[in-house]
Specification:
The chain contains eleven helices and six strands. By secondary structure, the chain is α+β, with helices and mostly antiparallel strands. A hairpin with an 8-residue loop joins β5 and β6. The longest helix has 67 residues. 29% of the residues are buried.
Length: 442
């Protein structure tokens, strides 16, 4: 049991190294996350992405549930290797008729007690095939645990960066709200002095309300993403989270040909299907072995009363073999053949799915990367500069309120689209990592 726990922990650490930032010290992050998990009642819990992943590996309830499947498969291995128990039987035979002297007989005088031990011996390698099948089942359960780590790690990263995305949206909405709050304050004075029309003041007031609604929406989105993250890393809603890994752009340029080969070799769900196929093949061999009958051998000892048969002590041997005239496990063999064919089809389907997932994730990554770099090439600065220019022109009377509102909406839309594009790019990186089953470092 201790060795099994060590293997599971090793698998978890190796996979986390694969999916996390390769420049980080993962073991240190896991240790820090463990210490932080012990003090989650503190006011604020600061977590980097690596620390959140380490807490996820330690505490996620779905992973714990899947890990129980490994222990169950190992228990089945133990059962598969056990021999059938021997059968102890005791039989008695007696007569209550009168003996030659006319005295009535009883069980102790004329009876017989026969004790026998029988042992079933499985023929045609049945026990070996069961052990082989259970071994593949245990390997499949371990690979399934790794696949759960692969899929849920993406969910942790996605929830983590959705919180950061909501914070970036919140900062943008607050900046625009504060800017127009100042404009509203100034123009309220100007309206009282008769310098602007009331309709212009109303338009500014409506724009402030619109930005305030965006602030509220960003706060709600952050709360929802934070709740998802707490659930994944098993934290109480009372624990305040402060995320320290920022949503930033890091260019990656992966080799798609190499990624396809890696995915075919390392994706745990592919290994699950291969192990299942091997297990079904072992099950088929076991089903065919059941065509041959098993042997039951027994030995016994009989002792008798004083007036029993001539020999007071007797030994006996017995052998029993079912005669396979009717049942030669025809249905079990047919069912096992179908199971093997289904496993082959499922493996082929998974291989095709993985190839398409890798290809789609790679294409989406390239497109989102191109869009991020287009925004960073000067579009963002142009949008901010345009708003500043129009605002100053409006203050000097060189632009109308409609020009200012249009510039504000354009600037907000460009900056918000950039934040969304940056998040989608990072998410596509994680999707490609999940599709390949390892980290994308270049």
């Amino acid at each position: 049991m201790a060795l099994g726990a060590f293997r599971i922990w090793t698998v978890s650490i190796l996979f986390l190294i694969a999916v996390s930032n390769p420049t980080s010290c993962l073991l240190a992050s896991a240790a820090q996350a463990e210490s932080k998990a012990d003090v989650i009642t503190s006011a604020t819990l600061r977590l980097s992405l690596d620390e959140a992943l380490a807490l996820f590996l330690r505490q996620n309830l779905d992973l714990i549930t899947v890990r129980f499947g490994i222990e169950s498969a190992r228990a089945q291995q133990i059962t598969a290797g056990l021999f059938p128990n021997p059968v102890l039987s005791v039989a008695t035979v007696g007569s209550f008729a009168k003996d030659q002297s006319g005295a009535p007989s009883n069980l102790s005088r004329s009876g017989q007690v026969y004790t026998q031990v029988q042992q079933l011996f499985e023929m045609a390698g049945k026990r070996g095939y069961r052990i082989e099948s259970a071994g593949f089942g245990a390997q499949s359960a371990e690979a399934n645990f790794e696949d759960a780590i692969r899929q849920l790690s993406f969910a942790v990263k996605d929830a983590y960066y959705r919180v950061q995305l909501a914070h970036r949206r919140l900062a943008l909405a607050e900046e625009n709200r504060d800017r127009f709050a100042r404009i509203l304050e100034v123009n309220t004075i100007r309206f009282k002095k008769g310098y602007i029309a009331e309709i212009d003041l109303i338009r500014i007031r409506l724009q402030v309300v619109d930005f305030q609604s965006q602030v509220i929406q960003a706060v709600q989105d952050a709360n929802a993403a934070r709740a998802d993250l707490r659930l994944l890393i098993r934290l109480s809603p009372t624990t305040k989270l402060e995320l320290t890994t920022e949503l930033e752009y890091h260019r990656v340029d992966p080799d798609i040909s190499a990624l396809r080969l890696v995915a075919m070799d390392t994706r745990p769900d592919i290994r699950v299907k291969r192990f299942v196929q091997s297990q079904r093949k072992a099950d088929l061999k076991l089903a065919r072995a059941y065509r041959y009958p098993d042997l039951t051998a027994g030995g016994g000892y009989a002792f008798q009363g004083a007036t029993g048969p001539d020999l007071q002590q007797q030994f006996g041997l017995s052998f029993g073999v079912p005669v396979p005239l009717f049942n030669r496990n025809q249905g079990g063999i047919a069912q096992a053949e179908v199971g093997f064919q289904v496993a082959e089809a499922e493996l082929e389907k998974t291989l095709i799915q993985v190839e398409n997932q890798v290809d789609l994730a790679y294409r989406n990554l390239l497109q989102s990367r191109q869009l991020v770099e287009a925004y960073q090439a000067g579009v963002l600065e142009d949008a901010r500069a345009t708003l500043t220019i129009v605002e100053r022109a409006y203050e000097r009377g060189g632009a109308t309120i409609l020009d200012l509102l249009d510039a504000a909406r354009t600037s907000r839309l460009i900056q918000q689209n950039y934040i969304e594009t940056l998040f989608n790019y990072q998410r596509n990186v994680f999707l490609l990592e999940s599709a390949v089953g390892r980290a994308i470092t270049s």
